[in-house]
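Notebook B, p. 112. Complex prediction, attempt 2.
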Amino acid sequence: MDIKLLEVDTLESALEKLHKKYRAAHEGKGRSSVEVEKLPLPKCYNRVLAEDILSSENIPAFNRSTVDGYALCAKDTQGASDSLPVFLDVVGEVKMGEAPDFSINPGQCAYVPTGGALPDGADGVAMVEHCQLFGPSQVAVYSALSFGHNMVFQGDDVSQGQTILKKGRVIEPADMGLLASVGKTEIPTYTPWKVSVISTGDEIVNPSLNPKPGQMRDVNTYGLIGEIQRLGLDVAGFRLVRDDYQMLKDGVMEAAKMSDVVLVSGGSSKGKKDVTEEVLDDITSGGVFVHGLAVKPGKPTILAVDEQGRIFIGLPGHPVAALLMFRLLVGGLWEMETGGSPGLGAMPHKARLAVNIAASPGRKTFQLVTIEDGLAVPVLGKSGLIATMSKAHGYIVMDINQEGINKGEEVEVWPL
Amino acid sequence: MDIKLLEVDTLESALEKLHKKYRAAHEGKGRSSVEVEKLPLPKCYNRVLAEDILSSENIPAFNRSTVDGYALCAKDTQGASDSLPVFLDVVGEVKMGEAPDFSINPGQCAYVPTGGALPDGADGVAMVEHCQLFGPSQVAVYSALSFGHNMVFQGDDVSQGQTILKKGRVIEPADMGLLASVGKTEIPTYTPWKVSVISTGDEIVNPSLNPKPGQMRDVNTYGLIGEIQRLGLDVAGFRLVRDDYQMLKDGVMEAAKMSDVVLVSGGSSKGKKDVTEEVLDDITSGGVFVHGLAVKPGKPTILAVDEQGRIFIGLPGHPVAALLMFRLLVGGLWEMETGGSPGLGAMPHKARLAVNIAASPGRKTFQLVTIEDGLAVPVLGKSGLIATMSKAHGYIVMDINQEGINKGEEVEVWPL
């Protein structure tokens, strides 16, 4: 038993080993680890940017009006008011989408629509609502404008040479607009890993079947399919395999052909874990380097990488553990490799703990919670039950040395 | 001008009107508003559940072991310890995936693997690590177990007749596992609306082109394509149309054929707004019912619904406003119609404001912010610039009657 305990890794060391093994295998192949593809802009939502994006232009490319009004020299309007307008000569009209072929001198103005280019010399725009036309060539302006009022200057949005988005950015809707504004329509993004899921266990049946006594339906495959999509990765395939060395080996090898990551779930009993470990070790030519994790839940987790840099993970049978370990290990490595930093939506929320909770000594502990009236409330129920995870809003992490957290303390709740 | 002001709606009243008009049109058609389709479970991630889901079974269907060990009567182990084991007779072995054909009486036990069914009479499982086999038929148990230790009871996860997920639930990975566990593999979900985007404006060019002086690239279409996907809706198509009544009308009518929602973006100048409004009103037979919003940014927003219940929205040209109004109006109506309540990731984060900010009197004000060291910092830069939105982590909402918020006050930051 002591020997077994020594073989257990912390989550951090397991992830570091996984990163090193993955990198080493890919460097051996002489190519970058995660593949990069150019995608048309409309397909880039939620993809990870694989290069820094620089703008070769100023945006806007010209001084632009943000209102319908009269482009003018702002200082001409000093002292203007509702009762005391300033009179300016109208010297032209800017047409939408065209560059004006005239300029504005003090005492002059020109009509410009929203989005129109300001003539040279103009440094402010009076809204039509604050102006009154006197004949075809004179306008009374009833408000005083400051420099740059109702306009944006060339380069205000993006300046030439500026890095508008950094490598590793998870592309959000506004980023897509920003990329369009600088003329980037084919975007270098990381190709999502293809992930296969294999569920094993003689007691496990396809969810469309009625289990016989002693059997139960496959839960982990479907939870994992959701988690794969949640991370923005691709589901390469999924399959239920009987709990037999040769059948499992055949299934894993078949899945590996079309996958960057192969998950084997359901081998948490001693015997099953051994079969999974044996199969993964054989397939990867001795590539199993993590045999268990000091994590609760999630101990019976096995990691291997083959010579081609494909990742093989034996996940716990316990559904909550399987989903969490997938997220932390595959999601963790994906973020390390791509630099992908998800937005505010993936960040933890602060909440105060509603009751005392205990950690498991010597293990990093994950506690599912709901958030109710700003308080983090642990989700009761024995571990391993998928309903508890479905009910939870998120989870709290307690470090390996932590004994627990007291009621009323502030905690970080990571969204599920 | 006063008449125009009277025509402006609050965001809340606009959304309420939109809801009523949408409902009325759909009730006239005699069918439910948002269509429902049955989807195979693996395709359900992030879809909205269209019915309550009840379980017709107990999950687990039998008392199940959570460890490899010996099923026994827990009270037999009272007082057992490392130095003083309890001896029990081994009366059988449970096979994985099979129901045991024997039961356990006091003084007896049986081997059971993780996930195996407990024999009748057993109410606890001693882990193999805490047991020692003496010959083929006797086991020494070195630890005292409480009732139900290392096992889950029939119905612990889900009890028969229980509603496991409610209509309106946005399906998360754990929910997919839960649905699988109760044998639901074809899931009733709301069919995402098909949304078309039309950008209009003579100064607007396709982002793959180099704009001539006075022209600029289409930003809103690509930001909106991202927002549509972010809401889980479908992009039906997108198109750039010249700023002309007939061309816009043709474009909108063409788009409407394949859409539940048609967005027209880029008509924010007075003249353009009028054309957009005229087109939408003509197409919907006088269906325009909102002519502007008391919102900053977002004032020039137009809403119409046609007799078939299709939604037409004239969005501001201002990209930040266009994206926000789409999210609040289309996203708002989608949530009202489906009951869709997104998870913790879409909930606002609490932060303290780094500086004083002012609201716009008489308008609901949206202020973009970043979160830095737990402080909400307003994103500087003139409104209307897409780079400001790309930079921001989220936004703060100030109500129509609010004058502003002081530095240090706690605010809610909604993720972008």
